[in-house]
Amino acid sequence: MLNPGDAISLLPEPANRLDSSAVAVFSFRGFQIGYLSAERCGWIGAKIQQGQDVRAIFQAPTNDGAIIRVHLDGGTPTLPPPPPESVLSVDALYAQQADLASGFWPDYLPPDD
């Protein structure tokens, strides 16, 4: 499990038999979590192979992968600010209304369809 802001390693795989420009994505614990998309791997992989200090962090999971933030000049990537409350899910809003100290949880109000 990765948390937002966790470091990510990007390692080119020139010997990859399916795509010589493939770039593997590893968690800070050393587990491979996937590959960069075909649209980005050639460009970012070339930057890494040219010796540029490319750094990346995990931002969020998606249904078919993850969002990572990449900095191409050795700087530390940063996370964007959290989304405004209006974008938060109903469950997140529900959890924000809970008063954990008193044990109070408001009644769940499902979203209208």
From TrEMBL:
Keywords: Hydrolase, Metal-binding, Plasmid. It comes from the Bacteria. One of its GO terms (molecular function) is zinc ion binding. It holds the Pfam family HIRAN. Residues 2-53 form the HIRAN domain. InterPro entries: HIRAN. This is HIRAN domain-containing protein.
